[in-house]
Amino acid sequence: MNGSSLPRMPRINKILIGIISSAVIALIMAPEIYAEPPANTEFKYQIGQHYPLVLSQTSAIATEQLPHSALVWKTHTIKNGESLAVAFDSVGLGSGLLHKIITTSNKTKKLTSLRPGDNLNFGFDDTGKLMELHQPLTNLETLVVKRNSNNNDFTAAITKQQIETQTNYAQATIDSSFWSAADKAGLTANQIMEIAALFGWDIDFALDIRTGDKFEVLFEQHYLDGNPIDHGNILAATFTNMGQTFTAVRHQNGKYYDKDGQAMRKAFLRSPINFRYVSSNFNPRRLHPVTKQVKAHRGTDYVAPVGTPIWAAGDGVVTESSYNQFNGNYVFIRHNGNYVTKYLHMTKRMVKSGQRIKQGQTIGTLGGTGRVTGPHLHYEFLVNGQHQNPRTVDLPQAYSLSGSTQTAFKQQAGNKLGLVKNYSHLLAKNGILLPQS
After folding, report:
1. Distance between CA 363 and CA 343 in Å, rounded?
2. Is 243 left (phi over 0), alpha (psi -120 to 50) or beta?
3. 20 to 30 A from 328, CA-CA: which of 62, 82, 133, 386?
């Protein structure tokens, strides 16, 4: 009978026989893994049955794991009125051990000033002996107390988790208000206030902001374990207001300068109060609201709630702090030899004549004393004895960079502002990257 006359074997049977043959060959070729069957034992493999594989002694020893040596941890949360002694007692520790840990170093003395909500993490070995005590101090710092190898003494250290700092970017065009635009751009309240403070010397954020104004910010973003936790310093920012662009770049000294190294911080605040609106601007031909006669209004009237703090516009010396029927409670401050600022109609004065004060220091509160039609601050700015419009006068610069320091800074500023421009181009080409409102 030739091969062609043999009955054809079904394909599925061929596949099963191939699988079984492979298993048998594997058993023969791998004596290190599969144990040899006892002599004179005949194995008959059946399709669909499971067969045990006996591991060799050599293999079992090789895969044996080392004993698990992790500590057993217990956490105690301090409640109202609880002391460290109560916390130790709750986890089965005595006063002797408590005293030894507290007196380990100055660091462990922090344990005596626990507050409700603080956590203490106790780590025990398999015999129940305290090996470690952890107290989280902040989101980043933890007090770690460890038992020494002699099993009697302890050491203490404050560990700090590593923060990763990356550069981030935000930008927006204003369509209603600066705050709203900055919030939609993903900036925090602190960042928004910082930007306003940076450019507040040149831009009046209460009166000068217009639809179409825009800003860009390059800032530090902090990450912990790959998750964003907070924002760091603003590195560079630009603000375009009514067609004019202002820049601010952070120097290594922590201060901000424009791209040429000129100080962003001027010698005077543009507005010495957080006001709601201006009721009367500087006007040499104003009609007086009480006397109805034309009389020059040599300052700016800012309206705000009674009691709103009034700040010194710059460093200086109080030349007058007094009261009269026209000015009400008033304060005059001399700055350097050429500048004088005046603050009228206060409810309360908080400085005295001859007192030296700093820029931003509260000198009084807004009120309606003297000859007025309603509560407000009347603010005047004099240069060499001449009244100037406080809102438009050129404010003198504070300390600016010079020499080689200025040269180096201008190069660094160019690099940072170039990075701002690169981010801007990237976002313009990839709209998907823009913050979603």
Report:
1. 9
2. left
3. 386
Residue count of the chain: 437
pTM exceeding the 0.70 threshold for the entire prediction: no
pLDDT at 53: 46
Q: How far apart are CA 101 and CA 367, in angstroms?
A: 58
Tell me the average pLDDT across 20-43. 45
Tell me, what's the pLDDT at 396? 85
Rg (CA), the chain: 39
pLDDT of residue 336: 80
pLDDT at 426: 82
Q: Which of 242, 283, 238, 269 is nearest to 413 (CA)?
A: 238
Residue 109: per-residue pLDDT: 86
Residue 380, helix vs strand vs coil: strand
46: confidence class by pLDDT, cuts 50, 70, 90: low
Give the C-alpha distances (Å, rounded to integers) separating 206 from 165, 184, 273, 357.
34, 19, 11, 26
Q: Contact at 8 Å (CB) between 321 and 312? A: no
Rounded alpha-carbon distances, angstroms, from residue 276 to 175, 207, 282, 381: 20, 10, 17, 20
DSSP structure string for 15-51 = HHHHHHHHHHHHHHH-TTTBPPPPTT------TT---
H or E element at residue 60? helix 57-62
Strand 277-280 and strand 300-303: pairing? antiparallel
DSSP letter for 264, please: S
